[in-house]
Amino acid sequence: ADWPEQKYPQPKPMMKKHTEWIYNKEHTRKIDKNKPLFIIAGKEDPVGGMGKSVVDLYRFYTNLELRNLKMRLYKDARHEILNEPKIKDEVYKDILNFIEEEEEVLTLDKD
Length: 111
Fold this sequence. Notes:
Elements: H1 16-22, H2 25-28, E1 37-42, H3 52-63, E2 69-74, H4 88-110
Parallel strand pairs: 1-2
């Protein structure tokens, strides 16, 4: 599929450079569509637009037709989800599960 011609979300001034890089046509064309990608963020993270920018990114990558894309927003979590005492064990567990699922898929593909 062609690169989706959609506008990226308008970032806060401090994130403008990063957002433009993420949505840059030249960079996104280089993404390996077969590599797994797990997008995780806190739903109360102002940097992620309280989840909105994260969902927009997920939709953008979906339009790029990435083959194994997953997203999880953690309720009541902010920016440093790996350091939030109430959820950090859950986040690490989700990351490990994602990796293990991918290892299983890679093993099955080799057979």
